[in-house]
Design goal:
Blueprint: E1 2-5, E2 21-22, E3 26-27, E4 31-34, H1 37-64, E5 74-76, E6 85-92, E7 95-102, E8 105-118, E9 124-130, E10 133-139, E11 144-145, E12 152-159
Antiparallel strand pairs: 1-4, 2-3, 5-7, 6-7, 6-8, 8-11, 8-12, 9-10, 9-12
């Protein structure tokens, strides 16, 4: 939108006074607010270009980037295999079991009573809490850790 003169006074250098007069010769009614049709098509073309670029970026990110490994990790049955990431869990009174994970990725867990982990054929990171403090341990393939004899709460498991 822009102001156009009705032809009374082309005195565009002066501002309108509080009474609506323009330098004493032209009145506010001498100027009308008219649609700026010259810029409308340029604005629409610019908007369409922005939308097209945005869509191309979404398509490129969807098909051009590799899938995130975050969803690939899975909990599996341990069986007699030793090549999985294995968390040894103690329930007390001599009872416990193991939880195993396979495939690369990361997952949030909440597992109390973990006293040992073995990486199997995986490089792995465990994020855990012990006595109110948070720690992270990364071990290469075929390694294990017993957390210094403590029982910990594991809250994240990552297989690289």
């Amino acid at each position: 939108m822009r102001w156009e003169s009705s032809g009374c006074s082309p005195d565009l250098g002066k501002t309108l006074s509080a009474s609506g007069e323009r330098g004493g010769t032209a009145h506010r009614s001498d100027y009308a607010l008219t649609p700026d049709t010259e810029g409308t098509s340029n604005q629409m073309t610019l908007s369409l270009k922005k939308i097209a670029i945005g869509l191309m970026a979404v398509v490129a990110m969807t098909f051009g980037l590799p899938a995130s490994p975050a969803m690939a990790i899975s909990q599996v049955s341990c069986g007699s295999r030793n090549d999985f990431l294995k968390l040894h869990i103690d329930f007390g009174a001599g009872y416990g079991f193991a939880r195993c994970f396979a495939n690369g990725g990361v997952t949030a867990v909440n597992i109390d009573g973990v006293y040992r982990f073995d990486t199997g054929n995986n490089k792995a990171t465990l994020n855990y809490e012990r006595d109110g403090r948070y720690y992270s341990t990364t071990l290469d393939k075929w390694r294990g850790s017993d957390f210094g004899g403590a029982r910990v709460r594991v809250y994240e498991v990552r297989i690289w």
